């Protein structure tokens, strides 16, 4: 449906010319003295007279055309923007001339075929806020004020959530009463906040009536009101009435006025939040480039938003008219806008999107209290509602909050299938958000803001990879995890080996509950913790021969650090020999023996005396190790991070011999291969290795608590630490804590009791055989490697010609995001594609090996069953066939002359079709 929208010129020049800022008289007089106020306006108008605007003087004209606006519901609209050549003050002072031009614009729009006319800024104020024009007009008219109120309140509530301000504790100043927007906002805000302070220009009968209706105090003293409140909603028709200096620290101002009520063109304070209220974000996928409007990242004024929504919905009715805006209509238009994909949670200040640091600074000033672990009451603000998302609808529906909204996007109705980005949250599996997560779970509530917080305070690079790549996981059980949208995924990453028992194994739960029930000591130093001692016995019993002493750590890299330091003392040499493509952790010592230059280079100089040798290359090892300068050779049984590289047959026998011959200690890093991953409790057992030192971590904590350990022969431990002077040379405050050790015991027991080693072997075999078969059938698949459930599937890189063609067009905008990494990423796109398809189409969570992204890591929990393995195989077949099919097709295209004529091409068939 066609729409028209009416505006008037509003430039910075206008603001300067009318002189309101310069004289300061307006701000001094506003709300206090009508006479002085009018005089300052008059000064402004005199300035305007000298302004050569070069505009048509007596008729409206079309300044812009918006040909194509689509919505989430699939509706379409097109529109014209009309401008009348009068500045805001001219419109106010000569409203009959303005109305004449507005009527002319309606006539033209009607002739063009528009069915609804929206009134922007001042054109929505004169003529009884649209009522005059509605009487005249054959087509519907709206000021758009209902959506403006809705958007501004949604923005305010979103800002409160982000800053931790609880409206129910706040006195809110609503400036601009008896204006229609301020009045409607005051009525809606009233039940949500502690109290309301109404601020208006004069103590009129109408203002007093409104004050009585909302049971609020009324004042004309704006400065005094600001001093008494830290939340301000301001919507005057004249602007420039709030001096930033008057704001108390930690104040949120939502400024709906055009020109702005807050004086200035940008925020001059980092301890307050000045927000442009009433903006709407247009539905995703629309590329509205208007020569007239500056669509700040898709933001438009909501008066235009409402006009568009009415056109999209083909509602030929005059909507927001007159002084009284009905709360029901406000809710309804907000609901329709949300359904069509409009969003109100982007925070802007003086029209420009705010930097995340603004919120951070505000919170540093405000320091909000939090009550995450207290059962959330159904608060008046709704800020503790099920999703932490208060909404206008709650107030409108029952006036006292309630779980009206579940999706956390600031939309009016819980049933709207929208997520935080205004996209559809209807899923491939047809499930609705939260379907699997019943009840009022803490983590679901925290998940609502988690992505924004992750981006703001943790890792913006990862967050910016997008929602299809980076999920927000809220629940895990066995081999499955669930995201915040209720989608269930088969977890084939399993915490990079830290979830051998799967998520939330009941035996680990029970162990932790027991220890907590018994009030076991948390952390005790230079003292005996029975849980730690018992776990030490258990570990030693299961470990390779001669390892009989345990030192506890909290992570893999700490276990490696302990091993390296101890080897220096016990081995009485300083150097370390390690393998290319190895991974031993990222603390400085571990990094120094990690064979990946990309990780090492930025942190040089590293620990001296560390040298590299190829994994599996016995000759080089022999040559180097015979120099006898190395305290230890550190090696993984299978190089997992390096791309699931298995050792050649007989390698470890030779390694063992050479270490013994040269009195070099052998450190076997079983952080990833240990605790049953390869089908033996330790891979050393499988390869017949007898390490001097063994490191372990990851799944020792049963997937719930971090714990690691270094296992060492007692004679070596004694050499290093066996005296009163040396026993405390290497320690860890948290090492051997009660919860960690009880999880460790439960983990080892469950692996034995549930025969998970047998299952790992059986399922590993099934997976490996299935994948090997696929490698024979699907060209993009190269080979499968590994043991037990530590497997890697290597893919072939895509053809160079495709890489360079992609770079040429790059409609994906990847080059902007990836910069110099683009080539690498494109080369590895085959595995990325499969990973993405598994994640988003088949709902299987996988990752690639960091050192070789063409290798898909396959390491599900050891509890994985046949059905899950078969589903995985079927899904990999489909996903990889798609890549093979696409690359063959594109390759074929490039092979031809006259690229683009694909009609004669023989189209390869996907293998699964
Ligand atoms: N050693 C090996 C073999 C690993 O695979 C890893 C981690 O993946 C580490 C050490 C480092 O463990 P963490 O990340 O717990 O420090």
Layout of strands and helices, then pairs:
Layout: E1 2-7, H1 12-18, H2 20-23, H3 25-29, H4 34-49, E2 61-70, E3 76-83, H5 88-93, H6 95-112, E4 116-119, H7 126-129, H8 131-136, E5 140-142, H9 145-163, E6 171-175, H10 180-189, E7 195-199, H11 205-213, E8 217-219, H12 222-228, E9 231-234, E10 252-255, E11 273-276, E12 279-281, E13 299-301, H13 302-312, H14 327-339, E14 348-349, E15 352-353, H15 356-366, H16 392-398, H17 442-458, H18 460-463, E16 473-477, E17 480-483, E18 488-491, H19 494-497, H20 506-517, H21 530-542, E19 547-553, H22 556-571, E20 575-579, H23 588-592, H24 597-600, E21 610-613, H25 618-625, E22 630-635, H26 651-662, E23 665-669, H27 683-687, E24 693-696, E25 708-713, H28 714-721, H29 738-753, H30 756-777, E26 781-787, E27 790-795, H31 800-809, H32 814-818, H33 822-827, H34 829-840, E28 844-845, E29 847-848, E30 855-858, H35 866-895
Parallel strand pairs: 1-3, 1-4, 4-5, 6-7, 6-9, 7-8, 9-10, 10-11, 18-28, 20-21, 20-22, 22-23, 23-24
Antiparallel strand pairs: 2-3, 12-13, 14-15, 16-17, 17-18, 19-25, 24-25, 26-27, 27-30, 29-30
The structure holds pyridoxal-5'-phosphate.
Pyridoxal-5'-phosphate is lined by residues 496, 555-557, 560, 583-585, 636, 640-641, 669, 671-672, 697.
